């Protein structure tokens, strides 16, 4: 399970250490935690304010400048299982000069973080490089030379187009050692995840579920599986987006079926679409709780089916079938209109 | 809701008091201005019961004419008599008397004469249970407990007595000693949303800066999931920023209230209720001494006939030694 590093005002490193680290603090001792500086919901990298001293982030507590030393201090009090070194993340539209600087800084901070840290937890080297294949390769080569346990690949999910991504991702993963895990932030849509997996990414961190839940959506896309073809044409669902439904819609007011038939999550086992629709209408937080439970469950099952497909050596077919089925209903709808 | 346990629905009557500037009360019923779209809505006793019949709760409440206890004058008397007329309409409209228990609500403000008339009127209708309404609106405690005591003394002993809108743990203990059985209140969850936890000693304000590095659980003696897994420091940094802070505190506070009920209940069954009350008060009052200057007068009579008098629990000073005078005489 991946978690984000949120700089909480009032929660000092000393206090976290006193409790025994992040696991004890948040009451989840049996989970694995990965700490990264960026949190696409609450802690966005602000590349214009980042300078040679530290990385800048836009947070609900204002703009914060994080120096490598502060970052490492936080990390050592939190004791996560995995942590990524401090990076200078830039979006795809910055100038070449800015992009080059981000690579230089990230590598320098990587060395600083490793030097300052007193072991504990697996260090993931941060790789940036923006939209430039050359810079990506340069950064990757530098990071690959350092003694890290895995790689955190940044700079994605910041507004670049999906088409540009494969080239950039492949440029990075081609150079990296195969036995070391690769973690990427910001790829959330099922298609993006499949794109990442195809390029060799192992771990994903995204806020996709969070945003879906906030808007009242529930994931319903068929999970498929090895050899199972559930991507069949359904004439009753023309024009509808079969990947998710919005429980705010009035058509669900009297729908006493679960969100997804045969889903084994708490929400689908115990409650109906009508109930969630009602909760959303009366602004009850239980709506988001139930939706988040289902969405997380569904999303994790998706990952599980990816793993199965990889194990069976059928990932490429799985991916192809999945993408095609998502386009199928659109094509049919277009024909019939 | 997929809730297999007991449910109780209210009539909508309380909204009359809390939204009074939007309400027009006549013999027919209550006209609200709908907060959703501004259109006028009429809630009659018949309509209220019909809605409650459809929702299907185990206990349903009659529509009563509620007035604030801070009001004086003929309005209180009017409301009390109307409540009696409306209970007949509620009874007539109730389509599921064998599945749902219709409770009547005793009104009458703080006037013992009016209260008495109302109680006798409701008891004549032989209802499955009785609520004591119109309290929990800011009246002083001296008047509050006197009304509760009068009603519980007059209501049948073999039917549940439900004090609506109560409340603070202390009030629940006192009312239970006076013979009440059921309560409802927003206090535990509302106070949780403001960062306050209910503990044995009283309350704990998690927003306070001293909580920022207090790594103890909310209540070290509490067995709830929150106290077993989370620290005050963590909840402190959540309370103003994340819904989870409210959730954790709500969970703990509800656990506290359920434990309080369970302990009250078993102490009665095991014949040690007075001892329980003394222990409860002893632990709680110590904290009040630090935060407020207060005089608590309580006369508590226990239904089984054992009288426990706690007189003049006076607390002095802020931060100084609290002096407690507790007279306990058991006849």
UniProtKB/TrEMBL annotation, chain A:
<feature type="binding site">
    <location>
        <position position="265"/>
    </location>
    <ligand>
        <name>Zn(2+)</name>
    </ligand>
</feature>
<keyword id="KW-0862">Zinc</keyword>
<feature type="binding site">
    <location>
        <position position="263"/>
    </location>
    <ligand>
        <name>Zn(2+)</name>
    </ligand>
</feature>
<feature type="domain" description="tRNA-guanine(15) transglycosylase-like">
    <location>
        <begin position="12"/>
        <end position="326"/>
    </location>
</feature>
<comment type="subunit">
    <text>Heterodimer of a catalytic subunit and an accessory subunit.</text>
</comment>
<dbReference type="InterPro" id="IPR002616">
    <property type="entry name" value="tRNA_ribo_trans-like"/>
</dbReference>
<dbReference type="InterPro" id="IPR050852">
    <property type="entry name" value="Queuine_tRNA-ribosyltrfase"/>
</dbReference>
<keyword id="KW-0963">Cytoplasm</keyword>
<protein>
    <recommendedName>
        <fullName>Queuine tRNA-ribosyltransferase accessory subunit 2</fullName>
    </recommendedName>
</protein>
<comment type="function">
    <text>Non-catalytic subunit of the queuine tRNA-ribosyltransferase (TGT) that catalyzes the base-exchange of a guanine (G) residue with queuine (Q) at position 34 (anticodon wobble position) in tRNAs with GU(N) anticodons (tRNA-Asp, -Asn, -His and -Tyr), resulting in the hypermodified nucleoside queuosine (7-(((4,5-cis-dihydroxy-2-cyclopenten-1-yl)amino)methyl)-7-deazaguanosine).</text>
</comment>
<dbReference type="InterPro" id="IPR028592">
    <property type="entry name" value="QTRTD1"/>
</dbReference>
<feature type="binding site">
    <location>
        <position position="268"/>
    </location>
    <ligand>
        <name>Zn(2+)</name>
    </ligand>
</feature>
<dbReference type="Pfam" id="PF01702">
    <property type="entry name" value="TGT"/>
</dbReference>
<keyword id="KW-0819">tRNA processing</keyword>
<keyword id="KW-0479">Metal-binding</keyword>
<feature type="binding site">
    <location>
        <position position="294"/>
    </location>
    <ligand>
        <name>Zn(2+)</name>
    </ligand>
</feature>
<dbReference type="InterPro" id="IPR036511">
    <property type="entry name" value="TGT-like_sf"/>
</dbReference>
<comment type="similarity">
    <text>Belongs to the queuine tRNA-ribosyltransferase family. QTRT2 subfamily.</text>
</comment>
Automatic annotation (TrEMBL), chain B:
<keyword id="KW-1133">Transmembrane helix</keyword>
<feature type="domain" description="tRNA-guanine(15) transglycosylase-like">
    <location>
        <begin position="1"/>
        <end position="284"/>
    </location>
</feature>
<dbReference type="InterPro" id="IPR004803">
    <property type="entry name" value="TGT"/>
</dbReference>
<dbReference type="InterPro" id="IPR002616">
    <property type="entry name" value="tRNA_ribo_trans-like"/>
</dbReference>
<dbReference type="InterPro" id="IPR036511">
    <property type="entry name" value="TGT-like_sf"/>
</dbReference>
<keyword id="KW-0328">Glycosyltransferase</keyword>
<dbReference type="Pfam" id="PF01702">
    <property type="entry name" value="TGT"/>
</dbReference>
<protein>
    <recommendedName>
        <fullName>tRNA-guanosine(34) queuine transglycosylase</fullName>
        <ecNumber>2.4.2.64</ecNumber>
    </recommendedName>
</protein>
<keyword id="KW-0808">Transferase</keyword>
<keyword id="KW-0819">tRNA processing</keyword>
<keyword id="KW-0472">Membrane</keyword>
<keyword id="KW-0862">Zinc</keyword>
<keyword id="KW-0479">Metal-binding</keyword>
<keyword id="KW-0812">Transmembrane</keyword>
<feature type="transmembrane region" description="Helical">
    <location>
        <begin position="285"/>
        <end position="310"/>
    </location>
</feature>
